[in-house]
Structure formats: structure tokens, C-alpha cells
Amino acid sequence: MSGSEKIVQDLVAAGVPVRDVWDLVNTSKQYRQAIPVLIRWLEHLEAWSEPSERRSLEEGIVRSLTVPAARGVATPVLIKRFRDTAYDTAHRWVIGNALGVVADSSFYDEIMPIVTEPGYGIARQMIVEGLAKWKDPRTVPVLIDLLSDPDVAAHAAHALGLLRAKEARGALIQLGSNGSVLQRREARTALRRLSPGDG
């Protein structure tokens, strides 16, 4: 039995009737009881699946965990996968996208080294954008610094706008003048989100 078949068996046993893990990615239904199964599979993927199916299976699991119901509980294994993945930047971006949804400020010390590591490139984008949801003042200086990182500058500007971070005004004005088309647009949008008179 393949790993894909075994995870379906486990999900069905948990009361989540699916034919494929990707069914969870494509549904609007809630599946809270599936979260522990998905986490357990992600933790043991190498032991429970064949190399030929592993990348697709991992992506299906990660995308299935990209939901508010997995917030906090799925974060540790996703952080480990983000750091250790053997696959390309596109795959790491998918994991980063999940972290942007499920990570919260209780993981500050684990997430900050990821978002500030340029070697992770664009895979950090949605984690950076997700920092806005934390509403943690410690993230603002980090986001301002990231405005000079071309891989995530637009996403940092978006987050700063959502946070209405007045202290970012100067850096956002500079990005709004000198950045790429996307960066200029996000910087100007962020400036408009600031208090009246601040952008």
C-alpha cells in the first residue's frame, strides 16, 4: 500500500472521508479532526512513504494544514520542514505560505531567524506578510529592515500597512519611490493605511 493510500485510510478512520489528501485542499468544509493525522504524517513522512510519491504527498499535507484550525499545533513541524526540505524554492514557498497562516507570536524566536535569512529567498514572502496578524510590536523593526530585502520588500510593506506602523513612514516613502513596480504599489498602499497626515 502506498503512502497516499495509507494516509487516506488514517483520515477515514479519523472521521474524514476523502479519496485523496488533496481532497482537503479543495474543500470548503472544516476538518479539524484531520489536523492531528496530517501533523503525524508530516513528522513521519520519510518512514511512511516512498520517495517517488513523497514530494506530492508532502505538498498535499502542507496545503491541507494551511488553515486556521492548524494554528499553533502545526507550527513546529512546519518550521522544521521549512528548514530541512530537500526540495526547491517553490516547495519551500508552499511551506512558508502555511507558516504565514499557522504561526503566531509565541513562535517569535523560531520564526525571526527564518524571515531574516536572505538565503531562503522568496520562500519567506508569506511568512513575512503573516507577521501583520501577530500585532506584536517586536515585528515592526524587523519588517522595516526587510523593506531593503528585494525578495520580501513588497510583503513587508503590506504587513507594515496592515499594522499601521507610523515609524515605517520614511522607509515606505523611499520604497515607494525607488522600488520595483510591485514594491512601489505596496509601499504606497501601506502609506495610505497610516493615520491621516501620515501618507
Q: Describe it for me?
A:
- With 199 residues, this protein is mainly alpha-helical.
- It has a domain at 104-199: Alpha Horseshoe (Leucine-rich Repeat Variant).
- The protein has 13 helices and no strands.
- It is elongated and about 60 Å long.
Topology of helices and strands:
Layout lengths: L2 H11 L8 H4 L9 H9 L1 H4 L2 H14 L10 H10 L4 H14 L5 H8 L9 H6 L8 H8 L6 H11 L5 H10 L2 H13 L6
Helix pairs in contact: 3-5, 5-7, 6-7, 10-11, 11-13, 12-13
Radius of gyration: 19 Å
- For the report, how would you describe the main beta sheet? none
Strand content: under 5%
CATH class of the domain at 104-199: Mainly Alpha
Number of strands: 0
Separation of termini? 59 Å
- Nearest-integer average pLDDT: 95
Principal-axes geometry comes out as: elongated
Number of helices: 13
CATH topology category name of the domain at 104-199:
Leucine-rich Repeat Variant
What share of residues is helical?
A: 55-70%
Model regions low in confidence, pLDDT < 50 over at least 5 residues: none
What is the H-and-E element order? HHHHHHHHHHHHH
Structural category is mainly alpha
CATH architecture classification of the domain at 104-199: Alpha Horseshoe
In short:
The chain is mostly helical and 199 residues long. It has helices at 3-13, 22-25, 35-43, 45-48, 51-64, 75-84, 89-102, 108-115, 125-130, 139-146, 153-163, 169-178, 181-193.
